[in-house]
Structure formats: structure tokens, C-alpha cells
UniProtKB/TrEMBL annotation:
<feature type="transmembrane region" description="Helical">
    <location>
        <begin position="413"/>
        <end position="434"/>
    </location>
</feature>
<feature type="domain" description="Major facilitator superfamily (MFS) profile">
    <location>
        <begin position="19"/>
        <end position="468"/>
    </location>
</feature>
<feature type="transmembrane region" description="Helical">
    <location>
        <begin position="371"/>
        <end position="401"/>
    </location>
</feature>
<dbReference type="GO" id="GO:0015293">
    <property type="term" value="F:symporter activity"/>
</dbReference>
<dbReference type="InterPro" id="IPR050814">
    <property type="entry name" value="Myo-inositol_Transporter"/>
</dbReference>
<keyword id="KW-0769">Symport</keyword>
<dbReference type="InterPro" id="IPR005829">
    <property type="entry name" value="Sugar_transporter_CS"/>
</dbReference>
<keyword id="KW-0813">Transport</keyword>
<keyword id="KW-1133">Transmembrane helix</keyword>
<dbReference type="InterPro" id="IPR036259">
    <property type="entry name" value="MFS_trans_sf"/>
</dbReference>
<feature type="transmembrane region" description="Helical">
    <location>
        <begin position="110"/>
        <end position="130"/>
    </location>
</feature>
<keyword id="KW-0472">Membrane</keyword>
<dbReference type="Pfam" id="PF00083">
    <property type="entry name" value="Sugar_tr"/>
</dbReference>
<keyword id="KW-0812">Transmembrane</keyword>
<dbReference type="GO" id="GO:0016020">
    <property type="term" value="C:membrane"/>
</dbReference>
<feature type="transmembrane region" description="Helical">
    <location>
        <begin position="314"/>
        <end position="336"/>
    </location>
</feature>
<feature type="transmembrane region" description="Helical">
    <location>
        <begin position="86"/>
        <end position="104"/>
    </location>
</feature>
């Protein structure tokens, strides 16, 4: 494959692709739970007569509880494997959906949202990790982006569910919307058991024969499979010529769960420090730049712009879901061609322009009382533009990047910490947007998000090296080289002076 080209259909291993698609189904359920709440909140407010504060809590509690799930999922996936972790997530989504669909009062509804939230933490951590571990370097960006396509598909389905069931009686409509996710959760829970386990996890546990068998299936040639197997063994400190199951696993593997917290957080190497900073930083800025405000409260944005009919607000919100899905699909084509770094930098620049425009046009629309049709139209266009730029770069790169940069020994924990930060920022935006909107106007909030996006752009430029085409076992060395190259540039600059 020539430099700069993306993977062709012939290069994408069909078995690895099928595994990634099935694993990504869990993301569809999560996306549905996120998107459907946007419209369901309108009707929940009507039935339970809840305040803006309780609405914010209902919207954000899912992601706050996902903190627990994401931190638990990393260790769980290391103990029971990647596959059974997806099964646990499916069960949590099923239980949460049933409780929300019952929802006799606000408290029970909140409980169901919490249960589903823990499932969200599991799903967000495990789907990209599993996809990254079964894919080859040349197609990893594409396959690791599939969970993000799943989320976008789910959000769009959630919005469509809002529109379809909005005409049902008040006490029935929103309950059907929220409870519907229980059905696919059951099928996925059973279907996932037919998937193979991650070959990297099997080898890490000393189950070499089984890991080798699966590696041959997810590779395009025996030579590629052997090369990937050798790199994994070398990375784990194993004998590269060992092909049988390791009964007495070497200390470095046998104790792979011991001391990981200390090594990653308290005594990390320089390269691990940079990996952790990049992984946590990209997750922080993904939601600090405000996307959840648009996903959950787009009906409020359109209302401020001058769309006052609930049915029309939900219809305009479907446009958000369609835009998100379209640009996520585009990103899967670009991510292995353009590379992670270029894609995310271009994405954030576009977000800055779109957020600034959205703040400006919402100001004009509010001042006119919704009478300026052109301001209303431009508010909708800039909302869609922001969603498009976000989803063509920052959204998929966040999950692909963190799933691939952590060394195998630290991957479960590292990705879990990143997802925890992601959910914390998501919950922060979800649970404060309406309050911030009251304090500084809706336009002021989006100007603030534009400012945060500028900071994100600077961070990404300096701390995110390109990972395109690198094997998972090369990442630690890549971050060491990134640091060394910066030191060399500084020395040259000093010498020039």
C-alpha cells in the first residue's frame, strides 16, 4: 500500500470486520439511549412537572454513572476477557431500559437511567478496544471507528423514535421510546457469545494456541499473522518461538494485573506519561467543546432560534442525527487515508468557526424574538456544521486514538481512565447547560465552547503524534520518539540563537 492511501476492500479482513461490526452493535444501543432522551425529556417534563435542574440531572446522570462503568470495565475486561465484558454491558442496557420503560415516577426513571449509565461506561470502553485488538495496523482506524458509527446510528434512531412516537398518549409515548432499547440488548447479549475472544487478550493470559488460531483468522496471510504474534510476544516479554499454551506464565504476564495502577499513574515512564496525557486530554476536550449540549438540547437551541412547535423541533433534531451519521461514515473513509492528526486538527478548526457562527446567529435570532428568518436558518445551518465538523474528526479519532496508544499491559486501565474523564465532562456539560444558558445566554455558552475549542486545537497540535499505520506494539516507542524530536528541535533553536 502506497503512503497516504487508505485500506482497500481487499485489505480489510472479512472475519475481523465481522467481529468489529458485532462488537459495535453495543454502541448502537448506547447511542439510542442518548438520542432518545432528547425528545423524551419534553414529555417527561410535562408528565412529572420537573424543573430545569431535575431535567439536567435526568440528562446527565447517565454519563455520571458511566464513570463507574468505565473504571470497572477496564479491570473487568482484563479478568474475564473483552467478549464477556460486552455481554455484561448488554445485560445492563437491558435492565436499565426495562426500568426506564416502566418509570412510574421521576425517582424510578432516574434509577433506570443510572443502570443504563453503568452499561454505557462498559460499552464505550470495550467496543473500540476489541476492534483495535482484532484489526491490522492498515485497517485499524476504519475498524476502530465502527463503534462511533454505531453511536451515530443509535442517536439517529433515537431521534426518529421521538418523532414516530410523539403522537402517542403522554403516559405511553416516552415510555415506549425509552423501553424499546431492551429488545436489541437481549439479541446482542446472546449473539456476542458467537464471537471469538481478542487474540491479544488470550496471548496475554498465556493461551497461545487459541490466540494464534484467532490471529490467523483476523489476518490476511500467515506471514502477517506470524508478524503480529511475534510483536505481541516481544511486547509481553515472552519467548518469541513459543507456540504452546504457557502453563507457568512468566512473571511479567502472570502479574499483569498487579501494580498497573502504580506504574501508570504514580511511576510512569516518560513515554507512558505522554500517552496518558494524550489519552486523557483528547477525551477531556471531546466533550468540553460542547457536543452533548447539541445532542441533548438541540430542541432548546431551535426553540431559541425561533422554532416553537414541538413536532418541528423534533424534526429539526432529526437533522442533527442525520448529519452526525453522514459525517461519521465519511470519517471512516478518511481516517486511514488522511491520518488521525490531520483529521482532528481540521475538525477542531471547523468547530471553532461553526460555534462562533452559531453564537452570533443565536444572538441575532433572540434579539429579534425569532422574527429574523435568515438568522433562524443560519442558526440551524451552523448547528449542523458544528455537528458535521465534530463527527468527521474529533469524535472518531478520540476513540480510535485511545484504543491504540496504550501498551497492552495498560490498555484496559488506560482506556477506562480516558472514558471516565470523557463521561465526567459529558455529565458536566449535560447537567449544567440549562443553568449556564440562564446565566450567560445560550449564545454566550456557545462562544465559551468556541474558546475551549481553541485551547483544544493548541493541545492537539503539540501532544498528539500521528499513529496512522503503526502497530499497537510500536506506540510506546512512537511517543518516546515524539518527545525526543521535540528536544532536538529545542536544542537546534537554542544553537541558532
Amino acid at each position: 500500500m502506497e503512503k497516504g492511501e487508505g485500506p482497500s476492500l481487499k485489505e480489510i479482513n472479512k472475519y475481523a470486520c465481522a467481529c468489529s461490526i458485532v462488537a459495535s452493535m453495543i454502541s448502537i444501543i448506547f447511542g439510542y439511549d442518548t438520542g432518545v432522551m432528547s425528545g423524551a425529556m419534553i414529555f417527561v417534563r410535562k408528565e412529572f412537572h420537573i424543573s430545569d435542574v431535575k431535567t439536567e440531572v435526568l440528562a446527565g446522570i447517565l454519563n455520571l454513572c458511566a464513570l463507574i462503568g468505565s473504571l470497572s470495565a477496564g479491570r473487568t475486561s482484563d479478568y474475564v476477557g473483552r467478549r464477556y465484558t460486552i455481554v455484561i454491558a448488554s445485560f445492563l442496557f437491558f435492565l436499565g431500559s426495562v426500568v426506564m420503560g416502566w418509570g412510574p415516577n421521576y425517582t424510578i426513571l432516574l434509577l433506570g437511567r443510572c443502570i443504563a449509565g453503568v452499561g454505557v461506561g462498559f460499552a464505550l470502553m470495550i467496543a473500540p478496544v476489541y476492534s483495535a485488538e482484532v484489526s491490522a495496523p492498515s485497517t485499524r482506524g476504519f475498524l476502530s471507528s465502527l463503534p462511533e458509527i454505531g453511536i451515530s446510528t443509535g442517536i439517529l434512531l433515537g431521534y426518529l423514535s421521538n418523532y414516530v412516537f410523539a403522537g402517542l398518549p403522554l403516559r405511553v409515548g416516552w415510555r415506549v421510546m425509552l423501553g424499546l432499547a431492551a429488545v436489541p440488548s437481549v439479541f446482542l447479549g446472546f449473539g456476542i457469545l458467537r464471537m471469538p475472544e481478542s487474540p491479544r487478550w488470550l496471548i496475554m493470559k498465556g493461551r497461545l494456541r487459541q490466540g494464534k488460531e484467532i490471529m490467523y483468522k483476523v489476518s490476511n496471510s500467515p506471514e502477517e499473522a506470524e508478524f503480529r504474534l511475534t510483536e505481541i510476544k516481544r511486547n509481553l516479554g515472552m519467548d518469541e518461538n513459543c507456540d504452546d499454551d504457557v502453563a507457568n506464565v512468566s512473571n511479567s504476564i502472570k502479574k499483569q494485573d498487579e501494580g498497573v495502577w502504580k506504574e501508570l499513574l504514580l511511576r510512569p515512564t516518560k513515554s507512558l506519561q505522554r500517552i496518558l496525557l494524550a489519552g486523557v486530554g483528547i477525551h477531556f476536550f471531546e466533550h468540553a467543546t460542547g457536543i452533548e449540549a447539541v445532542i441533548l438540547y438541540s430542541h432548546r437551541i431551535f426553540a431559541k432560534a425561533g422554532v416553537h412547535d414541538h413536532k418541528h423541533q423534533i424534526l429539526a433534531t432529526c437533522g442533527v442525527g442525520l448529519t452526525k451519521f453522514t459525517f461519521i461514515v465519511l470519517s471512516t473513509i478518511l481516517i486511514d487515508r488522511v491520518g488521525r492528526r490531520k483529521l482532528v486538527l481540521t475538525s477542531v478548526i471547523g468547530m471553532i468557526v461553526a460555534l462562533t457562527g452559531l453564537g452570533t446567529f443565536l444572538t441575532l435570532a433572540e434579539q429579534s424574538g425569532g422574527k429574523l428568518i435568515w438568522a433562524l436558518v443560519l442558526s440551524i445551518i451552523t448547528t449542523y456544521s458544528y455537528v458535521g465538523f465534530f463527527n468527521v474528526g474529533l469524535a472518531p479519532v478520540t476513540w480510535v486514538y485511545t484504543a491504540e496508544i496504550f501498551p497492552l499491559r495498560y490498555r484496559g486501565l488506560g482506556v477506562g481512565i480516558g472514558v471516565a474523564v470523557n463521561r465526567l465532562m459529558n455529565a458536566t456539560v449535560s447537567m449544567t447547560f440549562l443553568s449556564m444558558m440562564s446565566a450567560m445566554t445560550i449564545a454566550g455558552v456557545f462562544f465559551m465552547f468556541a474558546g475551549i475549542s481553541v485551547i483544544a486545537l493548541i493541545f492537539f497540535y503539540f501532544f498528539l503524534p500521528e499513529t496512522k499505520g503503526k502497530s499497537l506494539e510500536e506506540m510506546e516507542a512512537l511517543f518516546t520518539k515524539a518527545k525526543d524530536s521535540k528536544n532536538v528541535r529545542k536544542e537546534v533553536e537554542i544553537g541558532d540563537h
